[in-house]
């Protein structure tokens, strides 16, 4: 299992120690989300910044849907099942198996694709089912998948927050460990 973490508060009046933790989780802006492994180190980081984020455990079906709808290849292009592309690293076999084809390019012309910054990159399709299952089993981190941003940009929830956004979940709010976060994030997608 993995944690889905969403930053619920903005960037004003955040202490430096909390800002460093939020940056290391790729939660730079309000309503950014990420997926992190469920272990003691992650839980310690989340408890440290519980006044700014909300988190919950999620399964691989939600991860697949989340990556399909909100995963980004670049800051302006979403990941789709037909046009999902990623660059292939030559270091880990787990990443290659999850991304597909073990590093072979799907480009029929034999030329390498170039990114927006002019770098040469090999392009290939991503198998979202495999990626979701390997992420949910803690075998692959979201930040290690090449070509997909390690964060997800969410909108404010449709219909607004049904609970207080400045209180913890135990005090009838949304912050901290939130059992209802999945339904809230579905309204934010």
Mean pLDDT: 81
- Name of the level-1 CATH class of the largest domain: Alpha Beta
For CATH, the homologous superfamily of the largest domain is named as Ribosomal protein L30/L7
Q: Main sheet, how many strands, which sense, barrel?
A: 6 strands, mixed
Radius of gyration over all CA atoms, rounded? 17 Å
Strand/helix succession = EHEHEHHEEHEEEH
Query: How many domains, as an integer?
Result: 2
- How many DSSP H or I helices? 6
Q: Architecture of the largest domain, CATH level 2?
A: 2-Layer Sandwich
Low-confidence stretches: 82-93, 101-124
Task: Give the helix level as a range of percent.
Answer: 25-40%
End-to-end separation: 21 Å
The assigned structural class equals alpha/beta
> Proportion of β residues?
15-25%
Looking at the structure, the CATH topology of the largest domain is Ribosomal Protein L30, Chain: A
- Report the count of strand segments: 8
Lateral arrangement of strands in the main beta sheet: 6-2-1-3-8-7
Overall form: globular
Characterization of this structure:
With 189 residues, the chain is of the alpha/beta class. The chain folds into 2 domains: 2-58 and 155-188, 2-Layer Sandwich (Ribosomal Protein L30, Chain: A); 65-144, no CATH class. It is built from 6 helices and 8 strands, in the order βαβαβααββαβββα. It has helices at residues 16-24, 40-48, 60-70, 93-99, 128-136, 181-188; strands at residues 2-7, 32-37, 53-58, 113-114, 120-121, 152-153, 164-168, 173-177. The strands form 2 sheets. The protein has a 6-stranded mixed beta sheet, sandwiched between helices. β4 and β5 form a beta hairpin. α3 packs across α5. The radius of gyration is 17 Å and the shape is globular.
């Amino acid at each position: 299992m993995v944690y889905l973490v969403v930053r619920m508060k903005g960037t004003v009046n955040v202490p430096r120690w909390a800002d460093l933790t939020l940056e290391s989780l790729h939660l730079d802006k309000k309503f950014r989300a990420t997926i992190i492994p469920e272990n003691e180190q992650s839980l310690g980081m989340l408890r440290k910044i519980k006044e700014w984020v909300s988190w919950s455990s999620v399964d691989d079906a939600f991860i697949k849907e989340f990556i399909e709808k909100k995963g980004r290849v670049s800051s302006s292009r979403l990941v789709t099942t037909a046009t999902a592309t990623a660059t292939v690293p030559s270091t880990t076999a787990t990443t290659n198996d999850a991304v597909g084809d073990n590093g072979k390019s799907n480009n029929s012309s034999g030329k390498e694709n170039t990114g927006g910054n002019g770098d040469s990159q090999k392009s290939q399709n991503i198998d979202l089912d495999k990626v979701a299952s390997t992420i949910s089993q803690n075998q692959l981190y979201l930040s290690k998948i090449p070509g997909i941003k390690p964060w997800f940009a969410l909108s404010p929830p449709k219909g607004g927050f049904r609970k207080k956004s400045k209180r913890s979940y135990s005090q009838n709010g949304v912050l901290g460990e939130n059992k209802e976060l999945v339904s809230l994030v579905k309204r934010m997608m």
